[in-house]
Specification:
single chain, 173 residues, mainly alpha, 5 helices
């Protein structure tokens, strides 16, 4: 990882940190476009399948929006491996492997894994939005806020599904 500690006064090191964070979330979003169809296929509940499929469409637009942010900054869109997301996606795969197909218990586990991903994205986009504002990239901050709002809505949808019926049904299995 780069060393971002410096005393420069023009914010160049902060911009480098910001761009590095964009590269990280860009990788994460691109890999989520591959993971979400697997989660939808593994889900038992039609509501959960639909939620994953709907979020796939949003995630594909998030990839495009992050590319727009790179463009706004005059930077080339480039992904950097995101170890945190890589681990979260692996955890989702493990839940599929360790739970029985066709069970609501699996759905409960899928929601747990997906919400961990959403919370990582919410933290990342919130920080990136704030850095964009600090650096004076208000147009980029607006795009990042839009993505942040969509990630928050996806997290709420998962919570609503869990609380509406999935967790209770899982307890009955």
């Amino acid at each position: 990882m780069k060393n971002f500690v410096t005393t420069d006064q023009d914010g160049e090191k902060l911009k480098e940190l910001f761009v590095d964070g964009l590269k990280d979330i860009y990788w994460a979003e691109k890999h989520l476009t591959k993971a979400l169809p697997k989660l939808a296929k593994a889900a038992t509940s039609e509501d959960l399948k639909s939620a994953f499929e709907a979020h796939l469409g949003e995630t594909e637009t998030h990839v495009t929006k992050v590319e727009q942010v790179f463009e706004m900054l005059g930077e080339k869109a480039k992904a950097k491996v995101c170890p945190a997301m890589e681990g979260l996606l692996k955890e989702g795969d493990e839940i599929v492997e360790m739970t029985e197909k066709g069970t609501i218990v699996r759905d409960c586990g899928l929601i747990m894994a997906a919400q961990k991903v959403e919370h990582y994205e919410i933290a990342s986009y919130g920080t990136l939005r704030t850095l964009a504002r600090i650096l004076g990239h208000y147009d980029a901050a607006e795009v990042l806020q839009t993505i942040l709002d969509e990630e928050g809505a996806a997290d709420k949808k998962l919570t609503d599904l869990a609380e509406a019926h999935i967790n209770e049904e899982a307890a009955q299995e």
